[in-house]
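FORM 7B - TANDEM STRUCTURE REPORT

SECTION 1: FIRST PROTEIN
SEQUENCE AND TOKENS:
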Amino acid sequence: MMIREPVVAGRFYAAQRDTCRSELLDLLQHAGPIEVRDSATLVGGLVPHAGWVCSGATAAKVFKALSARQPKAIVLFGGVHRYRGREAALFGSGRWDTPLGPVDIDARLAERILGHTNLIVDDPYAHEDEHSLEVQMPFIRQLFPQAKVVPIMVPITPSAHEVGQAVARTLTSYQYDALVLGTTDLTHYGPGYGFAPKGEGVKGNMWAKEINDRRFIDLVCAMKAEELVVEAAAHRNACNAGATAATVAAALGLGATQGILLEHTTSSEVLGKDSSDSVGYAGIVFQ
């Protein structure tokens, strides 16, 4: 059996079972009531993937909203920080371990997805060092204990949205009870990221959030899947536009007509620091 062991536990989130669960439950408790009309009709979401201390609260809002449903499967569209392949990389069988217990792969669904497109390959080793989906797995284990997953890493290519379309075709063709979940962070702003067109400090960070991030968020909420990769390349306002494009396209294929923004914040706001470097985070659900 292929087992994907945690690689950022102890850095991005707690590695010890009790501490991890305690931190996760605290994030969910402080997420507050989620004001989404008829949460049972949600088909998916988009979450950030930094360490929980920075973006966990934003992700928790999305997971809390989606937990109104208890699907049999969750297809995950992950970011690509190290993988250099051109095709999307799927983890096709086995399980992902978390401090809270294992999350099983839906091998049958993975096989069926592979049969619907040549844009995805079964390459579990591509996931070895990628953190963007790992930080979501404890939420899934806690809130969707019966669900199996299909993790897919989506490179930033013009065809990224077609990956999501293929997943939606598979889910609808076989009438799967499933959610789709993607992940990206937003503008990485400041000298540490080599991107500070509006200057350093509070003024620049505010532009990054209110203007640059919002360009990308507005396209996501308007379900403009085919425009997201080009937008991020032009304005550097998302690190994983491929995963986002696939998520939006899949949500469209499952019947969603809009994205609903639950929270938009930045690392500098969360940490309460007037840092010259800041990263944007958004939590969005699709309905």
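SECTION 2: SECOND PROTEIN
SEQUENCE AND TOKENS:
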Amino acid sequence: MNKIMNFSPNFSKRDRKIKFVIIHYTGMQSEIESIKRLIDPKFKVSCHYLISRKGKIIQMVKEKNIAWHAGKSKWKKFQNLNDNSIGIELVNKGHKLGYQNFTKNQIKSLIKLCKIIKKKYRIKKENFLGHSDIAPLRKIDPGEKFPWKKLSLQGLGEWYQEDQKFFRINKKKIRILFFKNLKKIGYRYFSVNLSRKSDVKIVRSFQRRFLPKNVTGRIDQKTYKISHFLVH
């Protein structure tokens, strides 16, 4: 697989095992602007790989080192996922500058790269995550246009299977049951029993990934049902 090197000074030494791959979008006007930021010491951000709109892969930090891509984050028992992950950025203007569909070449390159990383570090299928999964109160990337279902068919990321054995849930119970499921899946930054204003961001993060045409922030029957299928 062809890779271009353009190393960033923004990294630290790794002393933990790689268990996750975290997928981001750049959220900047262009590939050039994105690279400038990722190699600028004053911004203190980086990634292991950047994938251009044409599918070109640029390595920016060696896998043996920690790239600064995830920030404050949690998933299951893990915190600050930079320590345990490889970060991949996809060039995309993002929600603030004109969110684009990811290109076929971009996704093709991403799948190839992720399969190599998966095999090399024996990463579990469910440990391919989006930035918004691990930092749902701060981040919304890679967003609802990212093809998680397509990746899941390649063994990269979890998806759900419809099961006919499902009953409608009482509206009073739906919130607690939904967040219980999210806790089992790995999401954090909420209380199962205590409702918070920030819960809507968690729900949207879940919907962006598993129900991308219905990002409302409300826990409806369909949203709950998907969380149920993911844990059963």
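SECTION 3: OBSERVATIONS ON SECOND PROTEIN
Strands lie at 4-5, 11-13, 20-25, 49-51, 57-59, 65-67, 74-75, 78-79, 85-90, 128-130.
The CA atoms of residues 10 and 42 lie 9 Å apart.

SECTION 4: SIGNATURE
Preparer initials: ____
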